[in-house]
Amino acid sequence: MNNDRAEGKTKDVVGRVERQVGEWTGSKEKQADGTARQASGKVQNAWGKAKDAASNVLNKAGDSKPPQRAEDDTETEESVNARRSRS
Description:
By secondary structure, the protein is mainly α. The protein has helices spanning 3-25, 28-63, 77-86.
C-alpha cells in the first residue's frame, strides 16, 4: 500500500466526519467542505490503487521469463527434398 492510498483513506474518513458534523449542526458549509474532502480522498485513494496495480504488473513482468521454444526434431518436407536433390 502506497502513501497515496493511506492519505486518501484518511481524507475520506475525515471528510465523512466533517460532513456528518455539518448535518448534525445544520451547517451547509461544513457539509459541503466535508463532501469535498471526502471526494478528494476517494480520488487520491483510487490513484494510489492504480499506481499499486501498475507496479504489480511491472514487477510480475520483470520476474517472468519469455517462453522457450521447444526443439523441433521433425524434418520438414523442404529439408527432405533439398537433401534428396543434393544426392
